[in-house]
Amino acid sequence: MTNQGLYVLYRKELADHFRSKRFIIILLIVAVTCLASVYSAGLGIRDAVEDEQNSFVFLKLFTASGGTLPSFATFISFLGPLVGLALGFDAINGERNRGTLSRLMAQPIHRDAIINAKFLAGCTVLAIMLLTLSLAVAGFGIILIGIPPTLEELARIILYLLLTLVYMALWLAISQLFSLLFRQTATSALAGIALWLFFVVFMDLIAGLIANALFPVGENSLPAEVLRNYKVKQNIGRLSPTLLYDEAAVTILNPGVRTLGLVLTSQLEGAIAGALPLGQSLLLVWPHVTGIIAATMLCFAIAYVYFMRQEIRA
Amino acid sequence: MEDTKVIIKTERLTKRYGNFTAVDDLNLEVKEGEIFGLLGPNGAGKTTTILMLLGLTEPTSGKAWVGGFDSTRNPIEVKRIVSYLPDNVGFYEDMTGRENLRFTARLNGIAEAGIENQIDSLAKKVGLGEAIDKKCGTYSRGMRQRLGIADVLIKDPKVVVLDEPTLGIDPKGIEEILAIIQELARKDGRTVLISSHLLHQMEKICDRVGIFVKGKLLACGPINTLGQQVAGDEGQLLEVRVEPDTPEVKELMEKLPGVKEIKYDRGLYTVRVKQDIRRELVKALLDNNYSLLHLRMRSGDLDDIYRRYFAKEEVIG
Prior knowledge:
heterodimer; A: mainly alpha; B: alpha/beta; Rossmann fold; Alpha-Beta Plaits; 2 domains; six-stranded mixed beta sheet; 11 helices; 37% helix
């Protein structure tokens, strides 16, 4: 009985998403941009495949930018948060404004079923969207370059998709939290976009400013100073889930990435040039992955507690 | 009335928001099968009381029970037997009335097989008819309220709680909705709790009412007994119009026992008296060769209650 409430709500939320014009618009935007980027990347790869002895050609579909358009991974990193925000910004305040929230709560269901169902349904929509899109991209890519993915490439793509799902779920949780904090749906949507812009554009700027203030570097600075400045900047930047995701995504999709950050020539002495195995790539971004998962859980937990305590009336 | 069961009960129920006391030490009992009206001006704490009864808001202190279940401890059991129609009820606009009702039915765990038939019979009962298959976005205020009542009834509740059910509806619609509400109690044997600030409408259908002002229950009982309860030591008011209308009339009335105060305005005397002196008044007037044109006891009727408690409050805000 209690789980039934959750199930009924979940089904309704899913149906709502799929029937909404909003979902169709988002899907179209993401699908068109991603397919276009893969197409342009594929054209570039086709010419390079012969002389390129390097393996992991298939992964290049996702990471290579074909001159005019950014890569698939860049687009997803850019649009993913927007999709998450779009699915959740009116989750609770929309119901409240329509007067359906109090009617819903008067039914014999647990209060948390409402917010749980909304989050789960949002995640399901994101997962379906992501899976469809990447299958389309993969199929499209195989036709374009004529090379099927190897097992490791497949594993890397699946891990990349899971990471992206968690990242988008983070933005879904953020937008649901905003839908609780703000009465107006327009306000919560704007707040979400503002936060997204902050992380995408300004975080890097601010990190640079702070690092330069703490450890100024000039033309005559010692390498140690430059290194320290860079490390501070990077670590401040990593407070942003956007940077965490970008670093993790690029490491998973590109086996050629051996380290995140500056490396001294002396450190590379004796190193054998070559790709990292999957396990080593994962090890490199494990803190990033945990960080993103923790942030997602934290955002949802805050929204959950807030929802459980919020008065129904203003 | 003694042997009927009490189905809703509150004990010293109190709700504070910061310094503001929305509901103050409320003791209330509603018996099974009766229509109870919670009457009071806007902001008196009616909705807050209802939300506490349903377990949707936690009381600051005190307790509430519905059907033997503690509203705070066991809200799910309470909500299984109580239906609530909020004021300004909303529906999912891009779904039809039928889809909205189906959703509520599923949330209540009603077997799929019976849902459609039940929706059809409810649509007929509340007078929605064919409109049940139209999108809720196209509904008028009156239709929404009808759908709301259908929504409330789909789980076959023991207790129906209606918050301002007639607000913003045209007079004909109000008549029909009041008739439906009456049927819920008289025919189906449900307990109905209505909150409203429209005294005259509640008078028609309620068995008992509670007058609720600033979070306090001032009077409680059948409407015809309320007058005496609220009148208190302020006494009662008589309206008198006589012919010929000479200044001596006032002197004559002042001599009568129990008269406290007389006001005069364009031929109409308003006399405040301690007790009912109509008999003495008529006799005195007739003995002095006046003819009585109009005599009415104003205290104790609804207008007086309204004037005293509601109208005053609403002016203040």
